[in-house]
Design a protein that fits this description.
This protein is mainly beta. It has one domain: Porin (Beta Barrel), CATH 2.40.160.10. It has 4 helices and 21 strands. Strand 13 and strand 14 form a beta hairpin. The radius of gyration is 24 Å and the shape is globular. It starts with a helix and ends with a strand. About 35% of the residues are buried. This is Outer membrane protein. Pfam families: BBP2. It comes from Cyclobacterium marinum (strain ATCC 25205 / DSM 745 / LMG 13164 / NCIMB 1802). Keywords: Signal.
């Protein structure tokens, strides 16, 4: 039987290997390297810029004073006829902020996985179905982690507190020339190395795209920190959150050859979960918490070398959803209106300078002014350099 099995295996593998070799000869694979580097200078206009008093909007990435580093991004891509991979590595403060959920394998200290922004493989099952497994950047929201994919250098509140990355399995279906659908099962949000909590998150996206742009309806639902267990209390702590639900709409279209408009609106809520009362685990009482918001984007190209763009955002937190992000009132609610005006100066095809002014206006005190008094407003300026290759 062993000899027969060996013979049958050889008879099967030889023609398969020959066919695969023929396919590789007919459709050679493509390996490429790309990426970016960025740095910036940032200064407050009505608040201190030094020491512990240095202020910044509580959004991601562009929040360091003076001359500061962004990140170096190196992306290795392999494209075959049916299969391929992406290995996306990041180094520097912006990269570290983007992968904050990655170094769990080293007990919260910086480890080798902390440089992995994306690491996934894909399989084109057919012309209309693609399977992807690994760690991939989020499909929610208008903005992205890499500065090369955003017009504004600083980021919105909605992007900063939505997911950054997911690890799991997703299936993309091309329903027609314009319509597509994605379904995914993933680890808890931003838990990119492995699943520590033993819970999973479901994701979905319905997209309509044209040559001028696209509209994307995004959904996310799942338990982000696992259920309490009397046998694992030391690992999970005395309480856990309920399920998180987020619905997100993103759209962007070229109105003319020189004008572009974009929209992002999102709603995120997490239900009351469980708590340990000293002897047993009980369901927590009270309302859930979260945030919602809307942002509009307008960009206008005056020439091949210069474009100007504005982002306006309204962001609301409820029931202590994001303490330390916006100023909150006595019941844990707070809101911010933020306006950002950016220019994109093309020095060359791969080097862009981005001057930017930003004004964040809170409903309650959150910042301090130059007199070290509580303030609801912060005005800031930055200029960034972004090089892509």
């Amino acid at each position: 039987m062993k000899k027969l099995f060996t013979i049958l295996t050889v008879l099967f593998l030889v023609p398969v290997t020959f066919i695969l070799a023929q396919e590789e000869q007919e459709t050679p694979s493509k390996f490429s390297l790309s990426g970016s580097v960025d740095a910036y200078f940032r200064s407050n206009l009505n608040a201190p810029n030094k020491g512990d008093a240095a202020q910044a909007p509580a959004t991601s990435f562009a929040n360091l004073p003076g001359f500061a580093l962004g990140m170096a991004n190196v992306i290795a891509t392999y494209e075959g006829e049916k299969v391929g991979f992406v290995a996306d590595l990041v180094f520097g403060p912006r990269g570290e902020d983007a992968v904050f959920g990655s170094p769990m394998y080293t007990g919260g200290m910086a480890g080798s996985s902390q440089i992995v922004n994306q690491l996934y493989m894909y399989y084109n099952v057919s012309d209309v179905v693609t399977l992807t497994m690994g760690n991939f950047n989020t499909y929610l929201g208008y903005e992205v982690i890499s500065p090369t994919g955003n017009f504004n250098y600083s980021t919105s509140y909605m992007f900063s507190y939505g997911p950054f990355s997911h690890t799991g399995l997703k299936a993309d279906f091309q329903l027609s020339d314009n319509w597509s659908f994605m379904a995914a099962i993933m680890n808890p949000t931003d838990m990119t190395e492995f699943n520590f909590n033993g819970s999973y998150t479901l994701g979905g996206q319905l997209a309509y795209t044209t040559d001028a742009g696209g509209t994307y309806l995004n959904l996310l639902y799942g338990d982000q920190d696992g259920k309490l267990d009397m046998n694992t209390m030391s690992a999970f702590g005395p309480s856990s959150m309920g399920n998180t639900f987020q619905i997100d709409l993103t759209a962007g279209y070229d109105v003319t050859e020189s004008m572009y408009i974009g929209l992002n609106t999102t709603y995120n809520t997490t239900a009351a979960g469980q708590m340990y009362n000293g002897s047993s685990i009980q369901d927590a009482t009270g309302d859930g918490y979260g945030f919602y918001g809307v942002a509009g984007y307008l960009q206008f190209a005056t020439s091949d070398k210069f474009s100007i763009g504005a982002r306006g955002e309204y962001f609301k937190v409820f029931n202590d959803g994001l303490d330390g992000v916006v100023g909150l009132n006595g019941v844990g609610d707070g809101r911010v209106v933020a306006g950002t005006l950016s220019g994109n100066i093309k020095i060359s095809d791969n080097f862009t300078i981005i001057p930017e002014t930003r004004l964040d206006m809170m409903s309650d005190n959150f910042f301090i002014n130059n007199d070290y008094q509580s303030s609801k407003n912060l005005a800031s300026f930055l200029v960034a350099g972004v090089f892509s290759f």
